[in-house]
Amino acid sequence: MNILEYENYQEKKSHGSESFPYITYPCSIPLDFERVPAHWHDETEIIYIKKGCGLITVDLEEYPVQEGSILLILPGQVHSIEQYLDYKMEYINIIFKLEMLLAKQTDICNSRYFTPLLDGTLRLTTHFTPGMPFYNEVAGCINAADEVCRTNPPAFQLVIKGQLFLLFSILISNCCETSASRKNQKSLEKMKRIIKYIETNYASKISIEEMADALDLSQSHFMKFFKNTMGTTFTEYLNDYRLTMASRLLISSEASILDIAAEVGFDNLSYFNRLFKKRFYVTPREYRKRFAG
């Protein structure tokens, strides 16, 4: 199970398919999950905070968010979502492929706007809050698309596409930003490689030596880079990721706790139980009893 699989276990309230790759669903922290670990994907994502507050990190920059906050996450941007102190947060998560707006034949919209967005040479404002210039216009497009998902009228796909085109015309006309520095981009590319490696291999043993070799770094350089970039050690991050996956499996599957521990990469059950309780303040069994439907 990778990060998107566990996100997508949430009930979809709209229509995502190969022919129309647009999905929107509600999330709640910590009711659904305490945090979404740092990850990246090729889709565009919009996070719209409806209630409460939390912390969202995008490309190593932390954004405190609260009711009304809107975050635009472009393809390839590394991002995470987590609870702030004991506060709850409810938000709408919208994920779609930017390619759904591309013309089959190259035109000026492709070459001037969407291709630069896809290859990272064009950056847009990430965080919008009430009172900012163009906030109402941005929120209006998202609200209109969400209402269409809720009511499901005939030809809803055309309305959603129309709102997305309008949204990007507002953003590109008024909310462009300069790209991250070359140094920061290099750090992000390294982090993306590490994150994808963990997503693919977290169920197996992963050593610091293995990760350092994968990045062609010394072990000491790798550990220093990871701690400086992520604010935690690699081992702590890996265990935290595994525990997040375990918490999802405890709710969504009927597998035994021993099997779940092994499936996410822990070969010692007592060690898994100890780390799980430290992270979630309850045992895996208590967690399943409390949150499983």
UniProtKB/TrEMBL annotation:
Superkingdom of source: Bacteria
Pfam families for the chain: AraC_binding, HTH_18
GO molecular function terms attached to this record: DNA-binding transcription factor activity; sequence-specific DNA binding
Gene3D superfamilies membership: Homeodomain-like, Jelly Rolls
Domain spans labelled HTH araC/xylS-type: 192-290
Record-linked PANTHER family: ARAC-FAMILY TRANSCRIPTIONAL REGULATOR, HTH-TYPE TRANSCRIPTIONAL REGULATOR EXSA
Protein name as catalogued: AraC family transcriptional regulator
Source organism: Roseburia amylophila
